[in-house]
Every structure is written in C-alpha cells, then in structure tokens.
Amino acid sequence: MMSVCKMNKQIFPTFAFVVVCVQFTCQYTTANGLTSKVLITNDGPTILGATTTFTAKLSFVNETVKTLPSNKTAKGEPTYLYAYYWKQWICDEYKVVEIKQNASCNFTQTYTCSGDIGSHTVTVDVRKNTFIIKPLVTSNTTAFQISEHINANLSVKQGISCNSSYGAETCNVVATNKSVDMVVDIHDPSNFFKGATLLYHWRFGDGVADTTINQPAVSHMYKKPGHYGITVNMTAIFPNDAEGEKQRQPKTGNIKKNLHTMDAVRNLTIKGKGNFPAGVKESYNISCLASLPVEVCWYVIPITTHTLLTGYSDTIKCNQQVLTNRTWFEIHQWFNTSGGYSIGVRAQNTVSNANSNKNVHVEDSANTVVGLVIGVLFGVAGCILCAAVITSHMRGHRQRHVEVANFDFQSQAQRSLTLGTKIRQFFSGGSREESMPLSQDFNRNQTV
C-alpha cells in the first residue's frame, strides 16, 4: 500500500534524521489501486439524555478477499489496521474520539446538554494505523436529530392488508363501520424508557370521547366517511432513582396523523332481462353503494363448466370504467348467438372491492319464430271457433215462431236448451234444432 503526500526533511545533531510528512490528500488507495469508502449509520432520532450508537463500515470498490489487507500479524495475533477518529461539537466543545478497529467500528455517545437539541452531525476519519504517520483512508459525515420530546410513530391498519394498494405499512385511508387498529411505536434503541410508566391519551377526531390508557395499541371504528385528525399525547414517568442520584423529569411527546375514511363497496347489482331471442341488443343497469371514486370492470362471457367452477379470472378481458360522480351506469351488449352467458362486474374503491354476476339465456331465433307462428295459428283457430258458436246461437234466437190461439209449438225441451247444450250438439253432429212435433190437440191447433 502507498500514501500520497509531500514531505520535508530536516537532520538534527542527536538524531540521524527525522521525517516529517505533511499530508495534503484525503484519499488512500491500496497498491492494487482500489478506491475506499466508509458508510456511517446512526440509530437517531435521539431524545435528550439517551445514548446514540454510530456504525462505520469500510469497504473498497471492486474489493475481493485477496485484495483486502490482513488483520493479523505473522504470529496470528490480531492487529488493528485502521484508526477511526469520531469528531463532533457536543456541549459547546469540539471533541475527537479515536477508536482502533478493522473494517468496521462502533461508537456511542450520550447527549445531555440542551444546547445540542436540533440537527446534529458526527464526522469520522478513517486513517491507516501506522506507527508514525497515519495517512487518511477516507472520511464521511452522518446527521440526525436530538429532541427533548418523545420520538414515536403511529401506524394505522385495518385487517390483514391496509387497503387496495395492498402491503402498505400504515393506512391513510380506511373503511367505515370496520375496526381500525392503531399502534404507537416509541423510538427507544438505547432503552432510555426502560422501567418508566407510559401513558397514552387518544383523541380520534370524530367526536367520540377521549381515552387515556397505559397501552400503546387501541382499536376504533368510524361511522361516517370523511377526514379525521388523530392525536396521541404521550407521557413517560420515571421511577425514583437510587439514593443520591438526580430524579429524572417526566418526558412528553405527541403524534398527529390525518386519516381519510370511505364507505366500502356494497349492494353491487345487475338489473336487466334474463331471457330473450338471439340477434338483439340488451341494456343492463349496474349499481352499487360506495364512496367515490369507484373503478368498475364488466365483462360478458359464455357459460361453461370452467367458468362455473372457477368464476372470475384475471385472464378475462374486462371493460374498464371509473365512476366519479355517481354509483351506477348502463352497459349495452349485442347477443347474436344463442346459449347461456354470464354478465360479471367487479367494483372497487380505495378500501374495498366486490363482485357480482347475472346469468342470461339467449334463445335460438328459428325456434322463436316457429313458436310465434304456432301461437298465432292457435289464436286464429280459437277466434274462428268462437265466431261459429256465436253465429249458431244468434240464428237460434232469430227463428220465427207462428202461434195460433196463443199457443207455442216448441217443445219444453227446445225452450230450455242453453248455449252450452247447443255447442255440444253442434260438435256431436246432431241437428241444429229439434223438429217441432205437431200438437196432439187437433181441435185447438193447426200446423203451419
């Protein structure tokens, strides 16, 4: 390995010589020309009084095991190849801490001065751990926040998945009339709050009474769609310390989160005819109840065993439509081939989705025409029959009777014949009217 620098030489009487090397570069390379870099991470943000941990990891571009220097002596004893210099302003003083390590180095710092509150930076210089001159290998800086209040996050979830975006760590939109799980996660990597009593005061923003509990999780249900502001106030009360130690003051903090609630998709229906002949264009009304906007996908497919068993599939071609100002729309479909069809609809908004389908039967046009003709023929035959019966009945009423001496020559049986009897006689082949027998009383009647 080599270091790039400029040197000045000066010989003293008591020493053979002393070499003073003033380094002007900040880049250190190996003999193989590998460029180095260091990555710094921290576990901030940090609350005042807590400890922050920093980690520096040294690496080389295109590094391999063979090109990295050995971290052991010839006798196999461990040795430190690098010196890490951690530099920062803390409590209004500039401090530098040297730690000798190899490819990685950890550094911890406790912050207790109020002057450190706010944005804070720490720089690390990595130098070659040589005896006299320590050439700079690489350098980097990390930044974090120091706060006097509790640092925490509020996560909101509803069920297994957050919403239709699926997989989000926290929900910004949830469904109404369903339980919403809320959890406060206090950031405390150094266990600063270990042993403290934590109280959580919840305000849900929908008019429901506030609640204070000693647990970081709660469930709540919103009844109406809208926008709500959630606020959680946290208080940490520390126990009495050992005798002689200063009592720690309570710590406070708050979290605010805006939440949007929507009505889930429900009552998805398809209204229209279920049976009709082929070769016609039918209309169907599709409607649902939901908060807008609603994305709708509808399709028409022949009914087969496969579709009956598996239902909707992602391979089915859908007609997309987005509803922004209403929750209904009409579709129009031509049915040119007879058979069974399934009309399917999928509707979804940000918080839910729903499916619905309607089976219809399309009749063959030829069978429809034959059925229509047969129906017409039966209708015509019935009309002719009724006309014949009515005509016969009217003729019987118009038959002339001549009475002599005010006597009726029709028999009692003829006078009592009803319309139904005459119809039966007509179809049985009998005479339309009975012969009128001559009266037996020749002295008082005569035949005309």
Automatic annotation (TrEMBL):
What keywords appear on the UniProt entry? Glycoprotein, Membrane, Signal, Transmembrane, Transmembrane helix
**Per the UniProt record, which residue ranges are transmembrane?**
369-390
Q: Name one GO cellular component term.
A: plasma membrane
In terms of PROSITE patterns, this protein maps to: PKD (PS50093)
- SUPFAM superfamilies found in the cross-reference section: PKD domain
Q: Which residues form the PKD domain?
A: 195-235
State the Pfam families in the record.
PKD
What InterPro entries has UniProt attached to this entry?
Answer: Ig-like_fold, PKAT, PKD_dom, PKD_dom_sf
PANTHER family per UniProt: MELANOCYTE PROTEIN PMEL 17-RELATED, PKD DOMAIN-CONTAINING PROTEIN
- Write the protein's name: PKD domain-containing protein
| Biological source species | Patiria miniata (Bat star)
